[in-house]
Amino acid sequence: MTTKEEFCSIYREQITRPGSDALLDYLEHKSDFFTAPASAKYHNAFSGGLAAHSLNVYHCLLNYLDRPRVKDVYKLEYPPESIAIAALLHDVCKINCYIPGTRNVKGPDGKWTAVPTFFYEDMLPYGHGEKSVYIITGFLRLTRDEAFAIRWHMGFSGTEDTRTIGRALSQYPLAFALSTADMEASYFLEQTPSN
Fold first, then answer.
1. What beta strand segments (E) does 39-182 contain?
2. Domain ranges in the chain?
3. Are 102 and 114 in contact (CB under 8 A)?
4. CA–CA dist 25, 21 (Å, integer)
5. Could you tell me the CA-to-CA distances from 47 to 36, 40, 113 in Å, in that order?
6. For the whole model, what pTM was predicted?
């Protein structure tokens, strides 16, 4: 099964609220979601990396929420649809932002070679998490937990005041869980060999 097939299968099975079909159609046919990288030079910096990252975050989030302490002590339970929405769609802010190109790299032999790369150009500079919420809510209604999770999925690696981030993560545990899953996927599963 390809990344796109797996993503669409999980999406269609788990996300059924009004507007979900239109959002998936947008991702498939009116955006570069399935061909965009997750980043220009860090994690999953390859064509299709964004969709692959979204799936990795989904699986990491499921694993995080299944931990005995999270389930039994903190009693964190969310509907499967909320988990799928938060994980699969947290980075839709990155669609249509990466432009393929080349850059010169000096090889071990001292010669310069053009290698493929991506350049980031955001034509809708609305922030990161808040831009994802903005795009999603153009198609379907989010619960408060979902909206806050997506908005604050960058956790403390964002640029906002740490007190605000801490309050958001404390008040909305799905935000903390999504942030943890995003970091696990980005820093453990998706690091390039040169990192």
1. 98-106, 112-120
2. 3-98+124-189
3. yes
4. 6
5. 5, 10, 20
6. 0.92
Tens of pLDDT, residue by residue over 156-194, are 887 888 999 999 999 999 999 999 999 999 999 897 555
Task: Report the alpha-carbon distance of residue 21 to residue 174 in Å, rounded.
Answer: 24
d(CA 137, CA 170): 24
d(CA 104, CA 111): 10
Which range has highest mean pLDDT (13-17, 127-131, 152-156, 183-187)? 13-17
The span from the CA of 87 to the CA of 145, in Å, is 12
Query: From CA 90, how far away is CA 142, in angstroms rounded?
Result: 12
Going by the DSSP 8-state scheme, the letter that residue 157 receives in this structure is G
Task: Pick the closest to residue 49 from 188, 194, 185, 193 (CA basis).
Answer: 185
At 141, the amino acid letter reads R
Beta-bridge partner residues of 125: none
